[in-house]
């Protein structure tokens, strides 16, 4: 009954507020769920764990869902994962079926979200029970696997791996902490940097810089174009929405939900991979594939149920292994750390109450998201028109607040924000990818401890191959993920030469 | 010497803080070399031959807004602590410096500066920091400069 005592009115108010703010962020092109969470983090500093998580989960679900609004109305994906929603949503809108398309998207989102929550509830505890038996060797290999999966799914395997390694390197700056068995010496810095960096870079200022400040710098370079100016939104004309649309979409809903959830579980994979995959699958199985892309409901259904399936899926590795499933959950790891909670195999067992309240929050967030988007869609549609010259300055000061307050007032954290904002902006220019870098940064410290401790106890590198059958299976998966990306690379270059020849 | 000796490793505790960083730096260096060979050299050739521009400089670049954002932000960060020192532990340093920063940033980002938009920008620059400051510093006791 402990769970019920945690569920006070404030808990539900925070979820609803989070979902509403998240939808706004998701709906504004160029702003993402990750940014919503990064910017709203300071609000959780004063809350306890359960309430903080309520707000964050609301933001997460709202932020992922809100992206469908501009995708359908303006042909601009509000978040990367709603890119495929534009394929059929916008043509529907042009025919005057904007509201119908939005509502189809919202219902699909709700299904995807609830489906993935169910998978999370069933799957995460099983995976944690399994992962509890892991020793340092397997834990290191899990991190290694996570990094190769991210790299192989990024645009370029080489750059993906390189970015991940840079993240690991950045994480190593500072002290090799005594509390994890280190010798307490600092490395990768000069003496002059020691007063600032003896603890290394703080996680949250780095994340807020990479996802908040870098995005604004990129927009500034483009001249802060108000890309919604002069556009008009027309809803309600033509065919009305009815649930009958979903009559033949059962298989599509479930398949897309499954794809979204399981892609979400792969660490570091962005949302667009899930919706693109489920959209192409629907096209393969559709009775009328030639109509996909001309404004048919099934396209919107496939895209939206997949991208909301991500939410529960991405939480699985976060809560059972301590490895974030995407950049949004990476920011959530920061929030957990802030509350003094270590996510990993022991999390669910030791924090059963938190786990249960999280599940309640996730389900409730989906319902609130549905209620807001379904019944107030006309008002939500207007937020896509909020001008950037008002919005971006607010984001900047929120980023500063988040960075400054995290360690109770360290100005160096604010400079970290700018450093990583600028660094993230420049990194994007030379092809370094932010998602693997962030995952590398988050996992780098642990990777070092597991690696060095394994070698200190066994004294040979071969232990990573021979420790246990699980280690061998993990190596198999590592090889598989690299092979997969090489296969993709070969396929892509072959297609390019074919197109060149034709 | 057997094959198994090849994989043997002994980590000296006093040096253990350098063990993993050295491996990572070695890998980074090796990968950087591979990337230069695989990607860098073809790009350089293309740039020299005039087929494309430097990757950092392609596309339109709004110098005013980009460097304006950077400059204003640096000034903002530099001014916040000294102003905060004048009225310590109140978070007022944040509030006082944020208002002109937001106003300047908004005006910088505006494309059509007429009365309506400027008024909106000023109202926003006044209301947003006050709301954030009141909610966080006063109600929730979050530390601000």
UniProtKB/TrEMBL annotation, chain A:
<feature type="transmembrane region" description="Helical">
    <location>
        <begin position="104"/>
        <end position="124"/>
    </location>
</feature>
<keyword id="KW-0472">Membrane</keyword>
<keyword id="KW-0812">Transmembrane</keyword>
<feature type="transmembrane region" description="Helical">
    <location>
        <begin position="51"/>
        <end position="74"/>
    </location>
</feature>
<feature type="transmembrane region" description="Helical">
    <location>
        <begin position="472"/>
        <end position="490"/>
    </location>
</feature>
<feature type="transmembrane region" description="Helical">
    <location>
        <begin position="157"/>
        <end position="176"/>
    </location>
</feature>
<feature type="transmembrane region" description="Helical">
    <location>
        <begin position="196"/>
        <end position="217"/>
    </location>
</feature>
<feature type="transmembrane region" description="Helical">
    <location>
        <begin position="12"/>
        <end position="45"/>
    </location>
</feature>
<dbReference type="InterPro" id="IPR002823">
    <property type="entry name" value="DUF112_TM"/>
</dbReference>
<keyword id="KW-1133">Transmembrane helix</keyword>
<feature type="transmembrane region" description="Helical">
    <location>
        <begin position="130"/>
        <end position="150"/>
    </location>
</feature>
<dbReference type="Pfam" id="PF01970">
    <property type="entry name" value="TctA"/>
</dbReference>
<feature type="transmembrane region" description="Helical">
    <location>
        <begin position="354"/>
        <end position="377"/>
    </location>
</feature>
<feature type="transmembrane region" description="Helical">
    <location>
        <begin position="389"/>
        <end position="406"/>
    </location>
</feature>
<feature type="domain" description="DUF112">
    <location>
        <begin position="13"/>
        <end position="439"/>
    </location>
</feature>
<protein>
    <submittedName>
        <fullName>Putative tricarboxylic transport membrane protein</fullName>
    </submittedName>
</protein>
TrEMBL record, chain B:
<keyword id="KW-0012">Acyltransferase</keyword>
<feature type="transmembrane region" description="Helical">
    <location>
        <begin position="91"/>
        <end position="110"/>
    </location>
</feature>
<keyword id="KW-1133">Transmembrane helix</keyword>
<feature type="transmembrane region" description="Helical">
    <location>
        <begin position="23"/>
        <end position="42"/>
    </location>
</feature>
<protein>
    <submittedName>
        <fullName>Apolipoprotein N-acyltransferase</fullName>
    </submittedName>
</protein>
<dbReference type="GO" id="GO:0016746">
    <property type="term" value="F:acyltransferase activity"/>
</dbReference>
<dbReference type="Pfam" id="PF07331">
    <property type="entry name" value="TctB"/>
</dbReference>
<feature type="domain" description="DUF1468">
    <location>
        <begin position="19"/>
        <end position="145"/>
    </location>
</feature>
<keyword id="KW-0449">Lipoprotein</keyword>
<feature type="transmembrane region" description="Helical">
    <location>
        <begin position="63"/>
        <end position="79"/>
    </location>
</feature>
<keyword id="KW-0472">Membrane</keyword>
<dbReference type="InterPro" id="IPR009936">
    <property type="entry name" value="DUF1468"/>
</dbReference>
<feature type="transmembrane region" description="Helical">
    <location>
        <begin position="117"/>
        <end position="136"/>
    </location>
</feature>
<keyword id="KW-0812">Transmembrane</keyword>
<keyword id="KW-0808">Transferase</keyword>
